Amino acid sequence: MRARILVVDDELSMREFLAILLDGEGYLVDQAESAEHALACMADQHYDMVISDVSMPGLGGIDLLTRIKADSPDTAVLLITAFTTAEQAVEAMKLGAYDYIGKPFKVEEVKVLVRKALEKRSLVQENKRLKAEVQERFGFSGLIGKSKQMREVYDLIAKVADSMANVLITGESGTGKELAARAIHYNSPRRNARFEAVNCGAIPETLIESELFGHMKGAFTGAITDRPGLFEQAEGGTLFLDEIGEVPLQLQAKLLRVLQEREFRRVGGGSALKADVRIVAASNRNLEEQVREGTFREDLFYRLNVVEVRMPSLRERSEDIPLLIEHFYKKYAIWSGTGDIVTPDALLALFNYPFPGNVRELENLVERCVVLGSRVITAECLPPSVRNYHIPSVDAEEVSIPADGMDLQGYLDNLEQRLLVQALERSGGVKKRAAALLGMTFRSFRYRLAKFGMEDD
Q1: pTM
Q2: What InterPro entries would the database entry show (predicted)?
Q3: From residue 49, how far is each of 80, 168, 457 by CA, in Å?
């Protein structure tokens, strides 16, 4: 996309000269005869750069610079004047001008300054975009859900992020433990340093010590050079130890020393190295049970478990399923964000399915539907193992007629009201989702609420 530049000068000849020069360089150029005119132009059009004379009737170039930086700080500003002084130059740079040149100037000088100013602006914009992308991916927005359980997770992460406390994240596989760890890091003062993650269960026992602490040349067969470990690579940042319960007992003692003394030694090394690293660990196993069994050190457990963040299973927060589906559908397909993305029968099946693989399994399921070409998720595009859950089984033996008989209609009405309330509770009060949960249309659901005088509850 071509950069757009606004040239501001009360002299027509200078404006036209610069406009012709910049147009020849491929830029889109507009002209303004005064600072006031320039501000009016900027109210209607965004400019990548403004080139302005300093001395003009009314508002001068310095005043214009101040107004531009207040309203559009990313816009590059180049000031030109016939009366250059050191004091003016210093003032202009302090106020945010990219540069300051005096008349008469060389054509090539203007070309170079404009090109460099726009390149710098582009780099700043890209840096901001990347930071925003990181925050979008790993900040709280990386964790999807509005359920009570997820709000509790957000609140706990917000409280613990600013501290140096070690955090233990627990929960079943696929619940988003690494996302929670990254959210802690990217919302902490360490956000600008590195986040290093390692799955302790995926590294052979003979290599995990070297992976964490590094090694010296000749420390073992194959160690042909010195190599820093993850503790060094994460210096000043966060080290995420996933599946911490898989770490062998011998290495657990060395991890404990790092947590206590804030120092470690490379494999084969003699001198101790400082460890300015925050530890966030995670496990889908019951570490307290491992402590009782003697496979996990009790002192290490308490060092790691300063604050526990428990990630709820998808079964516990099924009301978040529609939000998660929308998020994953946007990730894997072009979706405008309008209209229903999942049919009521498919949503009912998903609500009832136990999701042993949690959020990760739901993501794979959505990707499967997208790959199969489904623009809307229907029951037909779901795997049979999921689709079969849309009709819950009922045990007839659970209901029996009392010896003295019963009011069948009253019993059914009472049961229907209880199910309506349960559906509303599970859906967070969203009636369309509650209707889908019960496998009925929204209109039918509203009719039943009105039938029992529950429409305003």
Answers
A1: 0.60
A2: AAA+_ATPase, AAA_lid_NorR, HTH_Fis, Sig_transdc_resp-reg_receiver, Sigma_54_int, Sigma_54_int_dom_ATP-bd_2, Sigma_54_int_dom_CS
A3: 13, 49, 57
